[in-house]
Amino acid sequence: QVQLVESGGGLVQAGGSLRLSCAASGRTFSNYAMGWFRQAPKKEREFVAAINWSGGSTAYADSVKGRFTISRDNAKNTVYLQMNSLAPEDTAVYYCNEHRPIATLKYWGQGTQVTVSS
Q: N or C, fewer C-beta in 10 Å, the chain?
């Protein structure tokens, strides 16, 4: 079974930056496109960013485009999310997972909390 461990969240002021990490194990990490997702209080979990297996192609939600950057290191089985120019509306628990429709994803890690103060 895949194991996903997210880290790097915290409390930051608006305009600040954070770098999230996600360590994956339990399957051949480099075979899969990976994504970051987030869930704010009382809201549905939503897509944030995705990266293909090689790191050569990325995609972003419109709300984070130009501010967030996804990357991966297949040698370390780790995917990253660099978040710049953070805003209060970015406050959420952030999760990584295989890049597939959310409804098809059965297993999630514990996530990492990001809180942006105004």
A: N
